[in-house]
Amino acid sequence: MHVLTHFFINVLIGCIAKLKFIEILLLGLGGIFPDIDHILYIIFGEKIHSIKKAWKFHKREFKLMRPHFFVLHFIEIIIILSVVSYFINWYLFLIFLGFILHWIADAIKYLWFYKSLLPWIKYYSLIGYFLIKI
C-alpha cells in the first residue's frame, strides 16, 4: 500500500475518533514510519542506492508476491511497543497505534489483492518467522 494511503487512513481514523490535531498527526505519522524498513532493506539488503531502481525493485517484488524480512512489520514488536508506550506517553502510544493500523491495512490489502495472507505470515510475525515453514 502506498505510504500516503497509510497516512490518510490513519488521519481519517483519528478524525472519526475526534482526536486533537496533534494526535491525528501523530497517528498519521505512525502509519508512515513502519515503511522505513522497506527503504532500509532495499538500501542495505539489496544494495540499491538509486531511487528509480529502488521503486522498480519494490514494484516488481510486490507483483511477484515476494515478501521480505521487515522488522517494523512484526506484529509482536508492534504490540509490545504499543503496550509499553501506553504506560509511558500518550503521544508515543498514538504513533505505535498508527503502526497497528498500518499492519491491519496491509493485511486487508493482501487479503483483497492476493486472496491470502499465507505468503506474508512468516514475515509479519516473529513467531511465524521462526516456527512456520512455508
Could you provide a short overview of the structure?
The chain is mainly α and 134 residues long. It contains eight helices and no strands.
Describe the overall structure.
The protein has about 130 residues and is mainly alpha-helical. It has one domain (about 5-130). Helices cover about 75% and strands about 0% of the residues. The protein starts with a helix and ends with a helix. The relative contact order is 0.15. The mean pLDDT is about 90.
How many distinct beta strands? Answer: 0
Number of domains: 1
Report the radius of gyration as a whole number of Å. 15 Å
Mean pLDDT, as a whole number? 88
Q: Based on CA inertia axes, which overall geometry fits?
A: globular
Low-confidence stretches: none
Q: Give the terminus-to-terminus CA distance.
A: 23 Å
Keywords:
8 helices; mainly alpha; single chain; globular; 134 residues
How is the secondary structure organized here?
Elements: H1 3-16, H2 21-32, H3 36-45, H4 51-63, H5 75-88, H6 90-114, H7 118-121, H8 126-131
